[in-house]
Amino acid sequence: MADFGGETTDAFRAEAKDWLAANFPTSLKGRGGVMYTEGGGSSDPKIKAWTKAMGDRGWGVPTWPKAYGGGGLSSAEARVLQQEMNAIGAWNPIGGMGVMMFGPTLLEYGNEDQKRRHIPPITRADIRWCQGFSEPGAGSDLASLQTKAEDKGDHWLVNGQKIWTSGAQWADWCFCLVRTDTSKKHEGISFLLIDMRSPGIEVRPIQLISGNSPFCETFFTDVKVPKENLVGPLGGGWTIAKRLLQHERSGLAGGGAGGGRGGLFTGPVSDLAKSYLGADEAGRIADSEIRSRVTAHEMEARAFQLTAIRSMVESRSNSGPSATTSIMKNAGTKIAQDRAELTLEVLGHQGLGWEGSDFTAEELAAVRGWLGGKAFTIYGGSAEIQSNIISKRILGLPDPLSASSH
Amino acid sequence: MAVLTEEQSMLRDAARTWTQEKSPVSAFRKVRDAGSPLGYDPDAFAEMAEMGWAGVIIPEEYGGSDFGYLSLGLVLEETGRTLTASPILSSALAAASAIVLGGSEAQKQAWLPKIASGELVGTLAVDEGPHHSPAKVGVTATRSGSGYTISGTKTFVLEGMAAGLFVISARTAGAAGDKSGITLFLVPADAKGVSRKALKLADSRGAAVVTFDKVEVGADSVLGAEGAGFDLLEKTLDRARAGLAAEMLGAAVQAFETTLDYLKTRVQFGQVIGSFQALQHRAAKMFTDLELARSCVEAALTAIDNDSPDVPELVSLAKAKMGDTLHLVSNEMVQMHGGIGMTDAHDAGLYLKRARAQEATYGGQAYHRDRYARLQGY
Fold this sequence. Notes:
Number of domains of chain A: 3
Largest interface: A-B, 45 and 38 residues
CATH architecture of the largest domain in chain B: Up-down Bundle
CATH superfamily of the largest domain in chain A: Butyryl-CoA Dehydrogenase, subunit A, domain 3
Oligomer: heterodimer
CATH class of the largest domain in chain A: Mainly Alpha
Radius of gyration of chain A: 23 Å
Number of helices of chain A: 12
CATH topology of the largest domain in chain A: Butyryl-CoA Dehydrogenase, subunit A, domain 3
CATH topology of the largest domain in chain B: Butyryl-CoA Dehydrogenase, subunit A, domain 3
Strand content of chain B: 5-15%
Largest sheet of chain A: 4 strands, mixed
Order of helices and strands of chain A: HHHHHHEEEEEEEEHHHHHH
CATH architecture of the largest domain in chain A: Up-down Bundle
CATH class of the largest domain in chain B: Mainly Alpha
Number of domains of chain B: 3
Strand content of chain A: 5-15%
Number of helices of chain B: 11
Largest sheet of chain B: 4 strands, mixed
Radius of gyration of chain B: 21 Å
Helix content of chain B: 40-55%
């Protein structure tokens, strides 16, 4: 079979197929979504065995270097692996912030000791990471953060508060932005790795409008952090953070359209509209106003999918991301939110069930997903921040916040 | 921008250079001010044909280069940028497509080389009212002797004043609105009983009303099979719609770039107006929509070249998304320019007027959203 990369991958395809057949328990087919909603991790022995197999092989992070526990595959081989996994309904059990955001950043900016210590446990899903960036007074204006790390000779002394730390209640480690110099805004920020079991750390989950608590407040009181946990140069944290946020944004946009992120209803909203609102003799959604809006939404989602494909093909041929990628977070998250709103509207009152047996699991998930999805345009750089970035970096318009912006 | 072959890059670069140097917006303005009923400059079109642009989708044995629809889309995007008026869309794309797809060997030999060389302008005569509706055919073709007699009126015919050949949809059976019973005919403009009148529209192009008064044609003028013309017409229209969307993409990109330049130079309150966040976020929204629309247009053209089964839905997606985007950008072009954008001396009005005509041609956004939903089964 021909592949985009132009390399011959037939031998690898056979190898991947055999290995997956031997290691993926078919009873786990299609259960990938469950994995990530459990938050604290699964205790299912089959899932544990599958996670261990993928971790030992390094295929949870197929393109990371072998020396640190990755798969060492070329991107063409990684695509083949994904195709073979899709073909049998297998899913990647190795995920989370360590894989999506922190790992790639540490591979780029960490020193050899840091990489040897922290990357392998991520590749085996042994260690979970959380992100200590936002603070009560530093949201969109992230660089105004105040959590302080003082140099005490043989250690850093950290004091301050972080907020919206996703999964802090389950995390083993935190990659954190701290202020090491109060005289400079951006250049006074450093990137520090903090063991969440250190004395002086308190984590309080925040209950959201959706009823879930995926985010926490994290308090640091006289927390001692070893000197070797500083990543990159002192005062170089902002550069590393910007890079890390690029990984975050591309991950967030990818899940935006087409998928069932607004709840467990997968398929097109049009199918849902037909079953909840009925159809006329010609098979059209009975409510013409809803039909128009469902159509407009489905078309926008298709345009987004086509753009994601175009952007991928172009960056492959230009060997670098094109300007197109800058629009993906805003476009993708808007579509995901529109989908959740439309789904709710199509379900009517049945889509407002909070709990109980009067509602299906999908209906209950729809309302939680709709509420939880309001965060899509707030976190990872709000929609407004994304528009600022497009204006400034892509369109070359002047920066109205030039004194203080990123 | 799609990943192009070397030949496609060369074609696009040639089109860009020629339109920027030989056919800037001022050239279109001159055509408009001269009030020529043709609505375009025949000398400029002759140059375009000379460069091979009228034969891009025509097979080599009939005088074309068989470069495909994505390639012709690249040319249309560039001509769209400068509002270049020409029969490339109506003739070299739409009429040529109908003949390539449905023509007999004799018909192809008779018409395609002339279209490819630019000596003949062909066009589709499809609509009969203000809204695009290809099944709503009231024009009749009745059997008479060995041929047919065609009667009725077609309107909003692109390049209707310049055309030497009409690809006309006529009813040989059934009632207006039926998809069956429609037959396509190739009718020369000089046939007895054909008359035309220029329609003066806001965009100053060469649209016309064409009347067929008991026009006698031979059986050899039927394109495709009698009564089964609707499918051929839809396939032809999908190609025309995708090409038009490419032209709209060019117009929208240029309207946006011109507006962006203005945001960077116009000073108010002691600073360039592009430093105001209220304008920046609208500019970012336009850029986002342009990127999404480009993906749809390129996907539709590529699907045509690959003869993919999802051509109809991708074309409707492209025409609707491109229509919405051009609508937005053309309005913002006037608004962001302020008073100067309201003057005839500025180009903003030309883009605005052209935008609405392009949106309405071969089906507007509402038409194509409805069609997309029908194709998807809802």
